[in-house]
Sequence to fold (626 residues):
Amino acid sequence: MSLLVVGSVAFDEVETPFGKCDKMLGGSASHFSISASFFGDVRIVAVVGGDFGEEDLRIFDHHGIDTSDLERIPGGETFRWGGRYDYDLNVAHTLYTHLNVFADFQPKLSAASRDARLVFLGNIQPDLQRGVREQVPQAELVALDTMNLWIDIARESLLKTIRVVDLVIINDAEARQLTGIPNLIKAARTILSWGPKALIVKRGEYGAALFTAQNYFAIPAYPLESVFDPTGAGDTFAGGFMGYLSSQEKLDEAAMRRAMIFGSVMASFNVEEFGTSRTQRLTPDEINDRFRAFKRMTTFEEIPFQRAVQSTR
Amino acid sequence: MSLLVVGSVAFDEVETPFGKCDKMLGGSASHFSISASFFGDVRIVAVVGGDFGEEDLRIFDHHGIDTSDLERIPGGETFRWGGRYDYDLNVAHTLYTHLNVFADFQPKLSAASRDARLVFLGNIQPDLQRGVREQVPQAELVALDTMNLWIDIARESLLKTIRVVDLVIINDAEARQLTGIPNLIKAARTILSWGPKALIVKRGEYGAALFTAQNYFAIPAYPLESVFDPTGAGDTFAGGFMGYLSSQEKLDEAAMRRAMIFGSVMASFNVEEFGTSRTQRLTPDEINDRFRAFKRMTTFEEIPFQRAVQSTR
Fold:
């Protein structure tokens, strides 16, 4: 009954207009798994180097994240990413990307991992994603994230992978780039026509939307007066979304809608501090409070209009 | 018990990637009043030239819009605007602006107009807006729209006018420009601190948000697979919003929230065809159907999460 994530574990160096952090736990699998861990059991498939210490591992342990399939290469170095944000926090400027041990990452799934009910294929090379997907044929829901790089250099492989997953979770620029269609609604319909049963489009400060063949569901972002560090918001969203779903018996439209809210709640906490610092400290009450806030800020009464009585003219 | 709008009546020439229209009814007061007319009585204060014919006037008459205060200057020409949209339909490229009779527009309110319960100050010079506002001291709700031009060249007058209205309806770029604050939530709080009880921020394809001292309410835009001509969408939104409010006895938060939906519904129809062609043909059933669609696409069950039972590790 568990949730599996395949992705990167990294050390991030991030500079924003509000501060600087030299080395902190980052990577898609880290953000995803810490977020998901609040909702259910999660297993991580990733690779780290000899520089990944006990104190780093303890963060996963502390959240009950299963790291049996976290491969460690003692002679190698962990993936490192450096980025900078200006006042427009929607745009990350990459300063460097040292793939290190991640360059030769070949996801290896143990028997327990192959038993996962839900699988999240984090943003890695699409051939690798497809390789993992083939190892979990019985999974109830397999989701995929990707990025502009793979759309540019591995488009055909990415399209092949999209055809064999149930859910695609990307941002609006990626949806447009992937399809070449500027209208997001049309772009979404096109992606769904390739095979996935559902598509989630993340829109940053504007919220997120869920597209299925029959339905459209859209939510705003939680209103934050300051965003400190947006790194990992997308993976934290996916972690909250998939984590919540893993706690549910039925993965129907109603559960997916609530999962969208929990994903947004987790992302809204994530951006309040550097890296995973804020999410690491979260409590179930804080999460549920913000879930209820989403209800308050999106609710209206369904009363059709009747024209006011016309005055005599 | 009526609704008053002060603004422009124009002839628009618009070119989009999907077609071209040489001369059609446009201007803030036209879009606003046609939209509002579905919900209640509306009176228009504006100016036109001798070229504004009977067939143009008939459009207003047909919608029961009171044009007693529509001034006609036989020797002058009606305001004309020409614009072009590329595939990014969010950006209008102005080809020309011939203010004509609108250059010397001095809004004149009859006794009946000064009796209006709700007043919308369309996008005109802020001194003129304030002059109108002073003539309707008893109005229950006075709302204001503006644009980047007035923020640039008449900022002090605009701030004075904002201080004496109840509601500001602008887009997100204008909210940021007006306050110099990039974070929209902070910018909104700042605008509210100047006096208005409420602020609506229009976000185009991303929907709209309502800010009050106590509450935040955000809605997505209606998902359209094609946008034909976005001209007038903002005024059509305001018309639906204010028109719906004018049909309600109590102008409370719940009514404002429903009004946000009706505003968005009207704007979503407006962009489907050139100018006001689509809104002119609307029926109450079509409006209520799309209102119900908004409910379907924003509803989720308020069920707090409980962590799934942990497996034994």
Observations:
- The radius of gyration of chain B is 20 Å.
